[in-house]
Design goal:
By secondary structure, this protein is of the alpha+beta class. Helix content is 38%, strand content 11%.
Amino acid sequence: MGAAGTATAVSLPAAVASTVWSPADPVDLRLVLSQLGRGPGDPTLVWDLAGRHGVPGVWRTLRTPEGPATLHLAQTASGDVHARAWGPGAEWAIDGVPELLGAGDDPSGLDLSGAPALAEAARRLPGLRLARVGLVVEMLVAAILEQKVTVKEAHASWRRLVRRYGEPAPGPAPEGMRVFPDPHTWRRIPSWEWHRAGVDPRRSRTCVEAARVASSLERTLDLGRGGPEVHARLRTVVGVGIWTAAETSQRAHGDPDEVSVGDYHLHDIVGWALTGGPVDDDGMLELLEPWRGHRQRVVRIILASGFRKPRFGPKMTIQDHRGH
């Protein structure tokens, strides 16, 4: 998302907390927050580019350490981000806006001079930053639900569980938005409700175990933007493997290097983009090794560039998304 749309703004109740953040480097809300959405109908993230619920922008709910919050973000043509929040966790949500939108994410050590197509993709995506959400259990539960099932199935499970057990979003959020349930609620969801949501016993047990140790998981944020220690601590939860830990640290901690090994499609996408052919996980890691420290960033550049795995075809071709 670049500049706000032209729709007439709807009057909203005064926010509990607000700020205007002027990023030092370009930030594109769409590119940064796209990795947080859990499909159509996600009750925690709603894009409102037409301005039906206020200034055109994006709505997100959060289960903060201070309580539930609703956050609205809108970006002006100059790049400034206007943030407003409602609910007990409003101040926490506002304080977290810069990191949510990539402040502290440092791409300066990434050298793409040996990969012209990647360098061109990065040049065309100046607003791409890696988000640091700062909410470990939310990102972990979402990743657990995606284990060994299709994305469509996982998103349906997420919608059903959050809608049923999450509380209504505070403030003037669009109708139907819900706040991620608290750890106590996750632990008390009965087995038949997991079944109705399409979640097998193994994944439901892993979600419950994550909720049981929620406090210790959130403390991994003190270790910084990911890394081996964060990865190891996430994997102490029974049922959390290398893929789930990676998906979590990428979003919760803003890890620029963690790669989702074990993903059904990712290795082929990276292989096709960089070599013009499929590779396995080992091949993907070998291809990404020159950019160690920024491997996740390289993956995000490939995915955000618009590249799609062809049936037959050449290496990466770049689509220009600057006007989108």
